[in-house]
Structure formats: C-alpha cells, structure tokens
Amino acid sequence: MLNFSKKLIDWYLQNKRALPWRTTRDPYYIWLSEIILQQTRVEQGTPYYFRFTSTFPTIKALADADEDTVLKLWQGLGYYSRARNLHSTAKKIAYEYDSIFPDTYKEIVKLKGVGDYTASAIASICFDEPTAVVDGNVYRVLSRIFGIDTPIDSTLGKKEFKALAQKLIDVRDPATFNQAIMEFGATQCKPKNPYCLHCPFNTDCIAFQQGKIESLPYKAGKTKVRDRFFNYLILKTPSAHTLLQKREEKGIWQGLFDFPLLESDVDLEKTELIAQLDLFSLKGVSGSVAFKSLKIKSIVLESNEPIIHKLSHQKLNVKFWVVRIADTSELQTIPIADFKKYAVPRVIDRFMESFDFENY
Q: pLDDT (tens digit, 9 = 90+) per residue, 20-38?
C-alpha cells in the first residue's frame, strides 16, 4: 500500500495520547512501561509506572530491592511472573552489564521476560533500530487493512504478520512508526466499534470494504478455561492475629502471600470442608502443623456465594472461611493490622478491603 507509513505517522502526530513514557528514550523507562502494559490497559498501568519510577528511579535501585517489595508494588496488576522477571532482569543488567542496557534487538531479546515485541519496541524507540513491533493491536490493524485471514495464533500467521510489519516500517523513523501503529490499534482500529468512518485507511481497508471488521483478525483456537475451587482459611486468634503464608511453589501467584488454602475439585459445603481439613496442615514455626491439632472455636463461611475471579486461562471460585482459634505458639501469626504490608493476590486484597476482621 502506497504511503502506508506516511498516513499512519501523520495520523499519530495529530492524535497521539500524552503518555509519560513518550517523553523519554531511556531504555529502562521504556522497558518498564512495556512490561507493565503487557496484559494491562494504559489507564490501569500508568499509576503503576509512576510508582515504579518514583520508588526505583534507576535499574540499580530496582535490582537492589527485595522481591517482596517489588511484588507489593506490583499488586493488582496480575501476571506476577512479569514482576519477578522484571526484577531478575534488573539484577542482570545492574550487576553483569554495569547498569548499561543492551542496545540491539539481538541482545535485548535474550533478557528474561523480554520477547520479540518488547525487544522490538525498545530497540526501535531507544536505539532507532528498524525492528517492527507485532502485538495484538498490530495484528488487528494489519489483518483488517490488508484483509489477511491467516490465524494470528499460528506459526505461519506470526511469521506473515511480522514480515509485513517489517516491510511497512519507516526505516528512517522506526520509533515513531512503531508507536504509531500501536496507538492506532489501541485508539482507532479498536477490537469493538472501531472508528471506520473517520479512518485515514477506510478507502483502502479490505475489511471495511468487504464488511469483515468483526471477523478479523482471525484466531484458530479458543483458550480452554479451567475451573478451580479455592477455600481460603482466615484464621483469627483472640488477639486479632491471623496467618499468612508465602506461595513458594510455581504458579499464578508465586512469591505472593495468601491465607492457608485448601483447593478442592468441586464447590464444598461446610461438612465437606471440615472432612477435608482433617488431612490439612499449616506451615508452623518449626514445621508443618496439623489443622486438626488446633483448638478450633468455630468455622464460618463469610458469604454463601463464591467470589468469581477470572484469569486468562482460569476461573477461580473463591470462598473465605473464618476460623476462630485459641492462641497458639505453633503458628507464626501476624497482627491483622500488618496485613497491608504484604503482597497478596488481588482477589484477597479486594475481599479484605470490605471485610471487618476485628468484629467478625
């Protein structure tokens, strides 16, 4: 298509949003913004960008932080592996590269947690390397304008779209081109209700001309969502202490703290929960502590309806059970007043915002 890059950049210069990371070419800040914005809307991610840049103004500052601090700052963004990889990569750059960020796509893409898209964005925006970005926004723009129905979740599709984006990129100004096509997909050629009537490409766009806007881009497979059933035990001692445990095993919330968790195959009623608790153990001061060895005063379900917490591939059905126990030195409990100091999954944080622990 003639003048694709010129039309795109002209649109961008007139319509781009004023975003904080667009005022810098510092690779640390660009990298940080790109990692935050993976799986996250700009509106949600911007406050986190400011928190991270003010708390960790340099890569060295981020590298020197402990993981719990990083995860606490990340709390609410989800996909916590992003935060762990961010921290790990900051250490590598700070300690192995003397805080000097790699300046080529080839080296950037080797960093932990950095894929083709992020490496292309950093290399082009910070170092003027003409490497085209391809993400969900770019798939949508290119598939619609050029009428491409190759599945974007196939190996062939990924290669085809990358090659096309690379062919279209303005090699004289790759930074602006890449930001323009991402912005165009985010604000103009949106997934739903795109602004086709006021689009600079509407006379050329095959999807618009052929009525295929809703069907492109095409995805071959649908992600199967797995149902999981979580039963959180909120222990309460007479002195208003509770128990939080760090999730050490690999999984969706590795490194975060949560209440003792009993995961079941189905939704449990109280009698069924109690039966399973006979085999349940907790982390104690000097090893595991059998739940049945505790002096239980009562077990109460806080709400009859489970809280539904949706993740990309999982649907969590979450129940919170308040377990009143006598004081015990076997468990390393914390004052409930200290709860906010710990990085916890968003579903727990939201629940605790309205839960009256003290008077329950």
A: 999 999 999 999 999 999 8
Sequence-distant (≥ 6) Cβ neighbours of residue 287 within 8 angstroms: none
Looking at 190, 215, 240, the residue that finishes a domain is: 215
Rounded Cα–Cα distance for residues 352 and 50 (Å): 25
Single-letter amino acid code for the residue at 341: K
Give me the residues paired with residue 318 across strands: 230, 307
Amino acid letter, residue 251: G
Q: What's the CATH number where 54 sits?
A: 1.10.340.30
In a domain, residue 360? The reply is no
Kindly list the catalytic residues. Answer: 34
Neighbours of 319 (CB within 10 A): 21
Instruction: Read off the tokens for 139.
Output: 């798939």
What's residue 251's pLDDT? 80
Pairing of strands 314-325, 226-236: parallel
211 shares its domain with 230:
no
Both 241 and 172 in a single domain?
A: no
Q: What pLDDT, on a 0 to 100 scale, did the predictor assign at position 6? A: 93
pLDDT of residue 286: 64
For residues 276 and 334, membership in a common domain is answered with yes
Phi, psi for 57 (deg, rounded to 5): -70, -15
**Which residues of the chain carry a pLDDT beneath 50?**
none
What pLDDT is attached to residue 248?
85
Taking the model in full, what pTM does it have?
A: 0.84
Q: What's the pLDDT at 292?
A: 85
Unique residue bearing structure tokens 């007139």: 14
Query: In this structure, are 48 and 10 located in the same domain?
Result: yes
**325: Cβ contacts below 8 Å, ≥ 6 apart:** 235, 236, 237, 294, 295, 296, 297
Task: Say how many residues make up the chain.
Answer: 360
Q: What are phi and psi of 237, to 5 degrees?
A: -95, 165
In which domain, by residue range, is 286 found?
Answer: 226-354
Residue 76 and residue 156 in one domain: yes
The residue among 165, 182, 215 that closes a domain is: 215
